[in-house]
Write a structure and sequence with these properties.
Elements lengths: L14 E5 L2 E4 L4 E4 L2 H4 L8 H11 L12 H14 L3 E5 L2 H16 L3 E5 L8 H6 L3 H4 L9 E4 L4 H7 L4 E6 L2 E2 L5 E2 L2 H13 L3 E5 L23 E4 L10 E5 L20 H14 L2 H22 L5 E7 L2 E6 L4 H9 L2 E2 L1 E2 L4 E4 L7 H21 L1
Parallel strand pairs: 3-15, 5-6, 5-7, 7-10, 10-11
Antiparallel strand pairs: 1-2, 2-3, 4-12, 8-9, 11-12, 13-14, 14-17, 16-17
Bound molecules: pyridoxal-5'-phosphate.
Pyridoxal-5'-phosphate binds next to helix 4.
């Protein structure tokens, strides 16, 4: 019997230790982790530079409150601002909280009520995050939703043009819809959407919670398309496992987030910001990102080469080290068999297998994962 609410269907493996790309189970077995803790451990488990930064801060102070200036917050905020081209950062504790901050800021700065998001999107489990999310299953049983949000088909420019009006505060979008099935935004759509937003005084919020911090081979996924969002939200990979989220925005938004307008007791916690600063120091390095992008290309080449011709595989999608393999069958039993064979991967929706390896994964590890995935899928073709 568990004392935890059964909100998660937990796997059969209990981790004892984790290091780099590996999780060591209490069952005595080793698992190659292509989940990165659901897109979090972008540098693998317990990278030594991040561990050292945490230890250093642990010996200084753990929490003093946001009444104090804290240079570790400034340091992390500066790195986030510089890499994103934005100016001001609000630190929260999670992705959903980062989105809450972005939504509140957009509403306050524009004085407008409506926020446009997209079908199949995922923006978190708080009331605003849930209402923003374009998936009914996330909302079931929770009653009426905030009316702020309108959900449009992803990549549909005409629908966006029709909906955007003087009541619209913001458009909030994922460049790659992660939880919704690894759907990549169309370049023309994103560029035109950004243009439409700026022509209409509508803020563009890019939810980079899963795609940010190098996941797609650039610091942030919006940078593939040369657009300039007004606000981005980040979490997951930012602390490489320590809880932290952030909303970063343009300088002109600062006046709307003055003292008392928004806050969080733990937001910008010094241990988490120390981890985030160390993470960004590594991930935003040009050579590191180049290598991550090459790893992503290698993964896609292998997936195409080995899986494309299988009947069970409908489509292979993604960007950088964010890959989705859409199947013609339910993904869960295949994922369970992959775990038995020593590789951990994720679902994204019912029929998509999602691979989110750490950015510093090796070619041998990619080869091993694709080999096991192929072998497992093959068995299903035969037995189906
Ligand atoms: C795109 C996106 N936005 C928001 C969230 C919510 O983040 P968190 O679970 O940290 O609240 C997630 C989490 O999966 C996400 O992928």
């Amino acid at each position: 019997m568990s004392y935890l609410f059964p909100t998660y269907q937990r796997w059969e493996i209990e981790p004892e230790k984790a290091e780099g790309t590996m999780i060591f189970g209490k069952d005595g077995r080793q698992y190659l982790d292509f989940t990165s803790g659901i897109g979090v451990s972008n540098l693998g488990h317990r990278p030594k530079e991040v561990e050292q930064a945490i230890k250093t801060q642990l010996e200084l102070f753990w929490h003093v409150s946001n009444l104090f200036p804290q240079s570790i917050q400034e340091e992390a905020a500066e790195k986030l601002a510089e890499a994103s081209g934005l100016d001001c950062v609000f630190f929260a504790n999670s992705g959903a909280e980062a989105n809450e901050a972005a939504i509140k800021l957009a509403r306050k700065a524009t004085g407008r009520p409506k926020i446009i998001t997209f079908l199949q999107s995922f923006h978190g489990r708080t009331f605003a995050g849930m209402a923003a999310t374009g998936q009914d299953k996330i909302k079931q049983g929770f009653g009426s939703m905030l009316e702020t949000f309108i959900h449009l088909p992803f990549n549909d420019l005409q629908a966006l043009e029709n909906e955007l009006d003087a009541e619209t505060a913001a458009v909030m979008i994922e460049i790659v819809q992660g939880e919704g099935g690894v759907h990549v935004a169309n370049e023309e759509f994103i560029k035109e959407a950004a243009k439409l937003c700026s022509e209409n005084g509508v803020l563009l919020i890019v939810d980079e919670i899963q795609t940010g911090i190098g996941r797609t081979g650039k610091p942030f996924a919006f940078q593939h398309f040369g657009i300039e969002p007004d606000i981005i939200t980040v979490a997951k990979g930012l602390g490489n496992g320590l809880p932290i989220g952030a909303a970063a925005g343009k300088a002109e938004l600062a006046e709307f987030f003055g003292p008392g307008s928004h806050g969080s007791t733990f937001g910008g916690n010094p241990i988490s910001t120390a981890a985030a600063s160390a993470v960004m120091e590594i991930v935003f390095d040009k050579d590191f990102l180049q290598k991550a992008a090459e790893n992503g290309n290698y993964l896609f080449d292998l997936l195409q080469q080995h899986l494309c011709s299988m009947d069970i595989v409908k489509e292979i999608r993604g960007l950088g080290l964010m890959a989705g393999i859409e199947l013609t069958v339910t993904a869960q039993p295949i994922l369970a068999e992959m775990r038995q064979a020593g590789i951990l991967a994720l679902p994204a929706g019912e029929k998509v297998i999602r691979l989110l390896p750490p950015l510093n994964v090796t070619r041998e590890e990619i080869e091993k994962a694709v080999h096991i995935l192929k072998g497992t899928l093959r068995k299903h073709v035969i037995t189906a």
